[in-house]
Amino acid sequence: QHNPHWWGNRNTIVHLFEWKWSDIAQECESFLGPRGFAGVQVSPVNENIIAAGRPWWERYQPISYKLTTRSGNEEEFGDMVRRCNDVGVRIYVDVLLNHMSGDFDGVAVGTAGTEAEPRKKSFPGVPYTAQDFHPTCEITDWNDRFQVQQCELVGLKDLDQSSDWVRSKLIEFLDHLIELGVAGFRVDAAKHMASEDLEYIYSSLSNLNIDHGFPHNSRPFIFQEVIDHGHETVSRDEYKDLGAVTEFRFSEEIGNAFRGNNALKWLQSWGTGWGFLPSGQALTFVDNHDNQRDAGAVLNYKSPRQYKMATAFHLAYPYGISRVMSSFAFDDHDTPPPQDAQERIISPEFDEDGACVNGWICEHRWRQIYAMVGFKNAVRDTEITGWWDNGDNQISFCRGNKGFLAFNNNLYDLSQDLNTCLPAGTYCDVISGSLIDGSCTGKSVTVNENGYGYIHIGSDDFDGVLALHVDAKV
Ligand code: QV4
Question: Considering the entire predicted model, what is its pTM?
């Protein structure tokens, strides 16, 4: 279940974190489809507890499988899936199979109005009772398999996926989403569930819905959240054959490199050479909704210059199943998504350049990022050739004879003739500008008969990367 069922030459998933279904439907039609995005990862769809201040993380505390959250109801969800599929953009749902909500004083009322008593492990909306959960215990040793898989992750009531009843409820929930036309799932906290139980669940799921344009016998795409830094008792290898796995080492290492802690020249062997999973099993990202909130090596929108460079490298180097993060502005771990006085999530608004303005960051609408989604589509099925570096933080490479990238992460200029591998002609750098009505609004590069062109990236240029491809020839 490693096939994401992308349309045509498309390549990239965007995580529209905390967006409403009606806004995503609109975004598929007006932006993602036209720009060649392949799919959207959406926030959890089923009913959750209501936490004070409405932090984003309340959605990781389910109460029932009714499809009503602050993003919308079942009808709006179904409408979104249909409209996105119609323009070739797939929907992947973040699903919580590991647990229900954590403790809550008294009777909790969820986002669909369902009552539950989490302290008693009583969730009548499903229904689940105490016998459907593992006995309560705390994870204190992350290298103890029993604790990781059978105790409670931050106190969230831990479902027993070996039970027939729990399995049947989870399968029914996922099949309902498949019926509505989704292409697959991000499995939250997969590491906290035994891989044998997940294998049973995944293999019991229905095929994708042919009424939504999926070929007969298509299996749902699965990507599993397993954080494996390299020395864990529960490892990514236990899950990689069941579906793709989030490759956290990719996120950490790309952050290190573009923060300047590791010379870019080493990226020549990027991918399995760095101990990452085989390309088709790795779900890759510069940051995700959790690690963008942690201090450390991982880059996020708050370091835009380095973030754009890392994203360009992510989308230009042919490795992994790519996901781009699309965030809302945050100060700390608990900052809620943009919301109004009634605590309803508000819709993104855009300026004349299409950038988001009202608390949504929308990295996917940054020209340097969506242009690289287009680059990745344009160079599909080509290899890395013509690697060049200055022995330090200036690198360049080609994607066959369809695309060329150069990076300068040194504190001095990159100015020289480089092999672009492209057919002779003039190309528009899709990072510093766009090709509009045949003319380039940014830097242009003229490539001679031998494929060479003069490349300049000043150390104080707005962006430290330059990208050329055959679909942006002046
Ligand atoms: C608090 C205490 C606990 C205590 C508990 C019980 O911190 O020590 O046991 O009360 O009283 C929120 C609060 C957290 C609180 C918890 C339960 O932040 O302080 O525990 O609720 O009330 C998200 C957030 C969490 C949030 C959780 C549930 O990140 O902060 O917890 O949602 O709302 C590991 C895992 C990995 C996991 C990662 C964060 O291996 O699987 O930690 N990542 C996924 C998601 C993540 C999500 C969860 C898992 C849980 O990507 O976003 O956590 O679904 O690495």
Answer: 0.97
Residues ≥6 apart with Cβ < 8 Å to 156:
60, 61, 98, 99, 100, 101, 102
Substitution candidate for ligand 1 out of 15, 48, 50, 57 with most atoms within 8 A of CB:
57
Q: In terms of DSSP bridges, do strands 403-408 and 394-399 run parallel, antiparallel, or are they unpaired?
A: antiparallel
Three-state SS for 431? coil
Q: What letter would DSSP give residue 136?
A: P
How far apart are alpha carbons 92 and 399 in whole angstroms? 29
What is the DSSP track for 274-338? GTPPPGGGEEE-S--TTGGGS-SS---TTSHHHHHHHHHHHHHS--SEEEEEE-B--SSTTPPPS
- My answer on whether omega of the bond before 336 falls inside 30° of 0, hence cis, is no
H or E stretch covering 150:
helix 145-150
Q: Which atom of ligand 1 is nearest to the CA of 55?
A: 33
- Using the mean position of ligand 1's atoms as its centre, give its distance from the Cα of residue 98 in Å: 12
pLDDT by residue (tens digit) across 399-430? 999 999 999 999 999 999 999 999 999 999 99
Q: Is the CB of 429 under 6 A from ligand 1?
A: no
ipTM of the complex: 0.96
Q: Is any atom of ligand 1 closer than 6 Å to the C-beta of 367?
A: no
Amino acid residing at 386: G
Angstrom distance (rounded) from CA 456 to CA 466? 9
